[in-house]
Specification:
With 313 residues, the chain is α+β, with helices and mostly antiparallel strands. 41% of the residues lie in helices and 27% in strands. The protein is built from 9 helices and 12 strands. A hairpin with a 7-residue loop joins strand 11 and strand 12.
Length: 313
């Protein structure tokens, strides 16, 4: 007999007692959950970012390098937080404002819709509802849903495309220079062309579901080994295989590595970040590119023997 249980709503204050210390910190470290559930692609930059005498809960950026502010509430939406969203967006020159609450008022949803109608083409607002549920005695799980946001028809019709065309020229130039230099040091990206429509360029790693990526964001950059087959269980096993050799890999690489695994997420990453800068630091592009290439060459050399041994994984 098929046994089906029911979802049980959980009071958010039982999970995150304090909005700033608990919820904001958790969201900053688990932004991928928000990304997966509402279709965004954001990376955390910092918490409590100063905006004059105020501070935004979370400052993030998307794959295109646009700054994103996230304002959190664990109560019903109010005018105070609406004002904060607008203040932070203006003072930090951000392009996307996200307001999260468990109880969005209809009046505020209409306000967000209105702001999206009158805002410049490159500026967007989201009002997102957060809930938490569990099944039986399971751990609670967060659930995000969009209450108000940019008109998808307008977005698909070219608003964001216009903005990406403007910022994409810089990304194309960066990747063109990077790949020219990279191809002198490694053949991993020999057949890869630069692009202007996303913040990364990738190349296969010789096995299905494995890839190498150069990633550039507004203020940060990194290289990554991407474990990305369509089979989530296979990806988990492969990540665990590499992670079981963590100490040896990091010793051979010559530094710490960001082992980016999230339970329930299909893809996983083995990353190394550059401390040199990002797309906005044009005067540092050459140093950034050289640093990324050096890291890519070292990581590929270290992981190569492990990649060869995963035929049965």
């Amino acid at each position: 007999m098929l046994m089906i249980d029911k979802l049980i709503a959980v009071d958010l204050r039982e999970i995150w007692r304090n909005e700033a210390r608990n919820f904001t910190t958790w969201l900053f470290n688990n932004l991928d959950i928000l990304n997966e559930q509402i279709g965004l692609d954001l990376s955390s930059l910092e918490t409590e970012k100063s905006a004059g005498v105020f501070s935004v809960d979370i400052l993030a950026e998307d794959r295109s390098g646009r700054l994103v502010i996230i304002e959190n509430q664990l109560e019903k939406t109010d005018h105070d937080h609406l004002g904060k969203v607008l203040t932070y967006l203006a003072n930090l020159s951000a392009k996307i404002g996200i307001w999260i609450s468990p109880d969005p008022r209809p009046e505020h949803a209409k306000t967000i819709d209105y702001l999206n109608e009158i805002a410049p083409d490159d500026t967007h607002f989201f009002l997102i509802k957060i809930q938490a549920f569990k099944i039986g005695e399971s751990k609670p799980a967060p659930f995000f849903s969009i209450i108000a946001g940019p008109n998808p028809e307008v977005t698909a019709g070219g608003k964001i495309k216009k903005e990406l065309a403007e910022s994409g020229q810089k990304r194309y130039m960066f990747f063109e220079q990077l790949l020219t230099l990279s191809n002198k040091k490694t053949n991993l990206f020999n057949n890869i062309s630069p692009n202007a429509y996303q913040g990364w360029v990738g190349a296969g790693a010789g096995k299905f579901g494995l890839a190498w990526n150069y990633v550039i964001m507004l203020s940060k950059s990194r290289i990554e080994f991407f474990i990305c087959s369509p089979d989530a269980e296979l990806n988990k096993k492969r990540f665990e295989y590499f992670f079981s050799h963590k100490n040896e890999i990091e010793n051979d690489f010559g530094g710490k590595i960001d082992w980016d695994f999230k339970e329930g997420r299909k893809q996983h990453y083995i990353k190394s970040w550059s401390n040199t800068g990002g797309l906005q630091d044009e005067e540092k592009w050459l140093k950034i590119q050289e640093d990324l290439i050096d890291k890519m060459v070292r990581l590929e050399r270290v992981l190569h023997k492990y990649i060869l041994k995963i035929n049965n994984i």
